[in-house]
Amino acid sequence: MIKKVLSTLLSLFVIALCPLTAFAMVATPSDAVRVPVASSSNALPSQEYMEMDDFDTLDVMPLSDGDNYTSTVDLSKVQYYYRYMDSAGQLRTETGHLTSDGYFSVPLLADYSSTAYCLFSLDKSVIPNPGKYSVSVHFGSNTGGFTYSGFQVEYIQSFKSANTKFTQLNVNAVQSSGDYSYDTAIQIDSSVTRLTFISRFNPPAPLPYGGYFSVSFTRLSNASDVGFSPPSYTTSDDINQNIADNTGQMVEKQDTIIDQIMDVTETISNQLTAFWNQLAGEFTNLYNKMNQQHADQIQADRNNTEDLIAAEESNTTNIINNNNTNTDKLAYGYDSSAQDQKNDQLGNKLNEYDSAESEIFDSVSGNISDFNMDDYKIEDSSLLAGIVWVSDFMQQLFVSMGLFNLPVTISLVLIFVVIMIGYYRIRS
């Protein structure tokens, strides 16, 4: 699959390279593409976001006080150059970039003698597209107390077949105590690589020095008259420049195509790498998740088993302890003192009954054993004698019973009463 992709990309690369020489032509102004230029409707005031520091506390009323100036370029890409002479007469430069709202400051310099000029430089990235423009420049100083000797707008043009060319245009400005502003009309072509705005000082020049710079470009029609245009060159210079431009364009297009192929290849490689990394990550996450779920399930089963065993053991222990408690209550918890007392009383009564019964039987048995009945004499027998003898026998037997004669008496009385009741019922 990768071989097919690389083969396709190589074919596209060869096809793209073939027509480059056939379509090469001399660039003309009509071929330029107009790029929208910022205007006052979408620009921000350069002094709307002023900072305050020790350098800003000087009591100077700037010329721009109360006005609203806008910039149509990215001021953070504008570079300032402060040119001064040291004590040895050497020309030195203090440089840096403006802030996003156009502010800069130059502090007191150690070996400072005098100031030559200060310029603001716009490189190719912030210069507008080729065309005619009205340029408005404004600088608001936060020191003041000095004047300028002159102002210039400088073209810097670069040609591949010629040396770099510098062209300056003097402009008139309105100035007051370090502030200045001016408007001028210029023409910019494709050869302009840098545009600078120069302000020259009348001695003595100030330090510290700083403030807010703003510049805005307003597009003019092609028929407009401008006071400053790039210098013209000979036809040979133009032909050489066009050849160099076309050659450079071909090289740039080839480099662009190669870069695009490399970008596409790198993008495909990165996407494949990301896909495999994502796939590996998904598998790794899935594997880790399955392992984690398996470990969690095993741990849950182990915990449930341990909980069941612990619960059964606890229930068994509770049952055993409960049974032991109930057994102890049955064996040792019953209060038998009252029953024992009753048993003792019953035992005593039974013992007393046994003693009384033994005493009765002993008395009866003693009397019976001592009973002596006289022999009945037949020779004296008569009915009366027989009755007397039986009566005596019964009396002696009754007496011999001792204490036992009481129940016998009661029994005989009860028998007599029953006989009488029975007789009465029969008669009635």
From TrEMBL:
Source domain of life: Bacteria
Membrane-spanning residues: 397-424
Signal peptide start-end: 1-24
Source lineage: Bacteria, Bacillati, Bacillota, Clostridia, Lachnospirales
Keywords noted in UniProt: Membrane, Signal, Transmembrane, Transmembrane helix
Protein name, as recorded: Uncharacterized protein
